[in-house]
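dumping the sequnces here before i forget
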Amino acid sequence: MDNFNFCRPTDFYFGRGVENDTGKVCVKHGAKKVLIHYGGQSAVKSGLLTRVQESLDDAGVAYVCLGGVQPNPRAELVYEGIRICREQSVDLVLAVGGGSVIDSAKAIAMGVPYDGDFWDFFMGSRVPERALPVGCVLTIAAAGSEGSNSCVIDRVVDGVVKKKGSNFQTNVCTFSILNPELTYTLPPFQTACGACDIMCHVIERYFTNTRAVKMSDELCEGVLRTVVQMLPRVMADPRDYDARASIMWASTLAHNNLLGADREQDWASHHLEHELSAMYDCAHGAGLAVVTPAWMTYVYKHDVMRFARFAVNVMGCQMDYEDPEQTALAGIAALRQLWGNAGLPLNFDELGAKREDIDALVANIGGPDHKEGHFVVLNKEDVRRIYQLAADYQRPQA
Amino acid sequence: MDNFNFCRPTDFYFGRGVENDTGKVCVKHGAKKVLIHYGGQSAVKSGLLTRVQESLDDAGVAYVCLGGVQPNPRAELVYEGIRICREQSVDLVLAVGGGSVIDSAKAIAMGVPYDGDFWDFFMGSRVPERALPVGCVLTIAAAGSEGSNSCVIDRVVDGVVKKKGSNFQTNVCTFSILNPELTYTLPPFQTACGACDIMCHVIERYFTNTRAVKMSDELCEGVLRTVVQMLPRVMADPRDYDARASIMWASTLAHNNLLGADREQDWASHHLEHELSAMYDCAHGAGLAVVTPAWMTYVYKHDVMRFARFAVNVMGCQMDYEDPEQTALAGIAALRQLWGNAGLPLNFDELGAKREDIDALVANIGGPDHKEGHFVVLNKEDVRRIYQLAADYQRPQA
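..and the predicted 3d for all of it:
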């Protein structure tokens, strides 16, 4: 077990109707004027935005609004948010939406008190000393941004979309309001993408070279098993509260780093996916469903027994004691089957990615000596082969 | 799944040598002058207190010291701590010790900014609006006070020791410094008592009537399995770092309420034990080893399948599909065997409790209409029968 620091001070409100307390929670955390940040029209049409605004009105909290966050959120809107917050003396950014909205809100919150360009924090040249507090009303269980220190933003540089992440303690939400009912109306594809993202946040942590991490391995497997069990339930019945609730809380636990604080983590699959969603603007969870099993197939021989354990403890496979490698492969196959059954793409074609772009994807990920991952350290040739595996994969005939 | 609020802002530093950063961590959290609060001579003799003081010196943090906290910490020392903090303008209470020291520190921290008697917070008549920040350097994995909102204090009222708990958000430690190596030198009995307390914090949450709590059930079982596996290891080799580390982090997770925020919890066994340690000044974990299996034996028929699940998923028993009740009972027997093998008492005699005191124990727990627990709501006759089961239990012949 590695030494670690763990601090996640987020104040969580979880359950039916909790979004109606948004105003009170803002007051509790000292907000007087908030920027309500949101995405497209779904938050408007569903009436959620109106309820949040009424809650703020009732609590005497002033607000300004900035909608229009798109999936794979863009830097341009972050600049606009920063400008509005400064002009309007906003003291808290309230994200009403999913991971993209929360990440855009986090970037705005970083930028407001900073004299320079907020993008500095994404290029690794600066660490934010402070940020405005961020609260969220979550509408999709996926990114885990409601409990994590992560923030991912896209920016067009020389005509190419660059996707950059930042991981800072100041990115952790001050409060997060999680009502599973708000996810009832998600399109099935988004629900499935979210579940995949959740599982991949755990998988990036689960496959580690750090030994003696039984405690957090148990937590990892518990969160993964929960999603494995609940994903088919929400696909069958989108209004299954208990399944929605389990997946929503799993999304938070999967990525607040409780499951990986004590270990070296991998993150190669996420980075390979980021190149896909940067190039194709595809859903992050969909890209992960294509890349992650390809990565697993490429690296499983590094630790066959850990992959066998994943197969048995997470995917419910039988252990083959005479040939553990078959068990490892069965686990990867079962994962693909779970995701495929939920309507997720499993190869380049199904995702809308092109085999002939692999050179560009590999070029975009970094310079000639670029390395990815920790479970297995990958060079650019390894990365190419993983993309090729992701392109080549064919679903088994029924 | 029940609606819930969950907020545990503690800043954790975990691993080898982290206590040497205590001064820096105090500075990070704004402390200028701390009260170092500790128990007996072990913190002095081991050199830990000196290292903590040197760390504070190096960081330019002033301090005063107050030792002498005893197990089942007393109100008298809390009053003294409050007086010292006020006189010396202390701005943070630093507990160096286990649950008793941390709880004493929490009570001091509550009392300092309060005009009235701190005991009001334990009699249920007041809720603290604020408290001094509390930090800790943990020396035993047991109470979970390093991550919980709990604080338990004893006070002598009319010649009788009254043990009272308080659960407030202001009780949550600002920071906790957890080095598993500091537990290497614990006497085996204390190690075992700690592991029992950890398991019982989970058991109080695991046996619930709340349905659809798969996510947190998984976390409960994972923490319990970790202790079940690691307890024999630390009994065999007190310097097994990985086992000590697993148990220490388990102690935090068992009681920071992540495992039970979404459910009704029981706590009857804890309350029945509190009467034992109030009367006999026995170790809390030892009392729990006697009471909890008796409680389990008394209530298991309320939900045989949950007890069977505990037996299979936690204690590693085989499921008897023809007679699940036998599986449930086998789980309780396996738990007693685990604890008995670790040197814990399993009945009144072994604890040093007396059968003839049962009337007094039952009288002390509350008035004639007093109720205990939630999994099964117990009246005073039920409580009597559980104490009798705890007195009657005999270890199976080898």
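Chain A has a mean pLDDT of 97.
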